[in-house]
Amino acid sequence: MQVFDISAEILSAPVYDGDPAPSLSQIQSMDRGDGYNLTAISASLHAATHIDAPLHFVDGGASIDDFDLSLFMGECDVIACNSFDEDISGEDIERLVKKGTKRVLFKTLGKCRLTLSAAFALISAGVKFVGIDATSIAADGETAAVHRELGLAEICILEGLTLRHVQSGRYTLFALPIKIEGVEAAPCRAILMK
Asked: Which of 38, 56, 80, 166 is most open to solvent, judged by the fewest CB atoms within 10 Å of its CB?
């Protein structure tokens, strides 16, 4: 069995424009003579590898703790789109994603993201969990629309992945969000197993 860590390191991962950069504060330090080490973190819930719940762009939408944990683990298709010169369209989704696929991750190497037509095609295919190796899943100029449509369909979004070392194919995904009640997103540690 192979295990692939597809999580980004939280302090060095790219930060979405306008979000605060994560930082650590040393509260207690044995180097300073304290009896133990204690560190605090300050970060957006959307830092590094994280899951967006519908509440992110849908007023009154489901929060991260509303979902059964089984959504965040199970069979998952990784689809390499690193040869794309343009963002992923609905036609691309119809060609790449089989109907009934529940979880899909897009390996783009930062070259493309999902358009609104791609979001509609994912909904039509029955996808319930979608991820990408970018700070946002949505194409420029369509951020709110893509997130909103996926959210209205109760699709959770996994952003900030590291997929360079993963080939296309079927894997078992584990991407459990940190348990925080009533919020629109949560960091997670995501892995693939084959």
From this structure: 38
